[in-house]
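If you are new to this repository, start here. Below is one unmodified record pulled from the training split, so you can see the exact layout before writing a loader.
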Amino acid sequence: MNEDIYSPNQSYKITLSSYEIKMSHWVAQPYLIRLSDDVTLFSLKGDPWSAFTVKWLDDVTVEMELARYPGRTSARLILQPAIDQATATTYTSSFSGTLSEVSRWILDL
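And here is the target side for that same chain:
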């Protein structure tokens, strides 16, 4: 099951791809997609990260709160696809870089 959350100017969307990982336990895996060419710019595919909140701060900046299933690892992401920049913050550390660098950093937590 997918849910799409569009940027205010309809240039990007966050698709939450939800799947049941265990009986009654669901993961809403986020994907950031540029709509002009349907390219996925950011994903955490391969690791069960689930988005709890998604909020577009402006036309090109999205904020997400995520948690890895199972466990207690969580992160706050700020993604800016128009300039290929992102920041991830956990309880103990923070990292900024390109969208792909931040994706790799999160997957390595």
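Two things worth knowing about this chain: The longest strand covers residues 12-22. DSSP finds one helix and nine strands in the chain.
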